[in-house]
Fold this sequence. Notes:
The chain is built from six helices and six strands, in the order βααααβββαββα. A hairpin with a 2-residue loop joins β2 (about 85-90) and β3 (about 95-105). The relative contact order is 0.18. Strands 1, 2, 3, 4, 5 and 6 form a six-stranded mixed beta sheet that branches. Helix content is about 40%, strand content about 20%.
Amino acid sequence: xxxxxxxxxxxxxxxxxxxxxxxxxxxxxxxxxxxxxxxxxxxxxxxxxxxxxxxxxxxxxxxxxxxxxxxxxxxxxxxxxxxxxxxxxxxxxxxxxxxxxxxxxxxxxxxxxxxxxxxxxxxxxxxxxxxxxxxxxxxxxxxxxxxxxxxxxxxxxxxxxxxxxxxxxxxxxxxxxxxxxxxxxxxxxxxxxxxxxxxxxxxxxxxxxxxxxxxxxxxxx
Length: 221
């Protein structure tokens, strides 16, 4: 079984995935930059969950990934009008967790929160383009979600709104702005099973050869 994070590692560099799975002791210890990025991501995710309200479903706590995915699916089917967070999903030995599923139009908006700012063009009004690795991220989730029987009506990136100003009173409404990327994912989503098969072959084989290049720092060092 591979996770979404591991498949994203493969997308960056096959050797990165192989090392993570086979020789993790060779990987560098987290530095201050990666620690800060992890803390920022945790805080941003926590705030995004709070904004969804007290009635949010959180189907976590089951150690077995397959059973967790089955339980989450039933939980959402029995409460279709409530948003859910950290939703475990499984398809063909690929495991992913959706940051949020928000009821909309009889289905769900699959919403992925990132500690990145909402992209704007030079006029500071027109939405800009999403990062390619963010699109890979949500394409993987959307492909896995297809097997759940839950309707994915829309796919969104939940990004920090840098035009927002804190009004006080612990009111964080407006902190996030959603970028609808539904129409950008069809080609990527169709590629996910191809990525998965190739990644499984990498994990099962010897360390792949690799040359240093842009992939060594894009999107992460």
